[in-house]
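Incident log, structure service

09:12 report received: a user says their structure output differs between two submissions of the same chain.
09:20 pulled the input from the user's history:
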Amino acid sequence: MTEAQKQMNRKIYIANQDLSLAEYCPDVDNKSYYECWQDPATQDGYNYKMCDSLEEFCKRPTRSRLLAVIIRNKDSKPLGIVSLSPEGSPPDLAIMLYKPYRGQGYGTNAFALAAKYCLEAYSLDCLYAGCYETNEISRKMLKACGFVPNPDGDSHEVHYLTGAPITQHDYVLYKHI
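09:34 re-ran on a clean worker, output below:
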């Protein structure tokens, strides 16, 4: 089966006019996902240094409740990844956009779509997300998607490269019944 055929055969979790969240297919998606992790901006956004080789990355088991590819509907182009933290942990939603698609509104659109899907499909009462204090773009995205500051406060960590204190602003989205 060709890559184009695999793209067409993906399970679609949720879609709107512009984007779809589709099944992650390791043999098609691992390389782009790995390359995104190699980007210093991605590592900074997650406060994590990815040191694995592509081969090691591909061998890692997927623990996420949801790992979905963001697909642009007009041309079936993969734009990034959304993921929901593993079962048994607080439901934390994360996004990673591939470099060419940042700053074009795709992240906000995809994150809102993923939040809606996760709240409904997993019967959640709320959903968590966060961004580091230096990431104003993500903060704006979270607010645009309806997330509010977590009443339990923010998380304090050390920067993965410098060891300096860094704050992750924690947000929550409540399911409105």
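09:41 both user submissions now match this output. Likely a transient worker issue. Closing.
09:42 reviewer note: The chain is about 30% helix and 30% strand. The radius of gyration is 16 Å.
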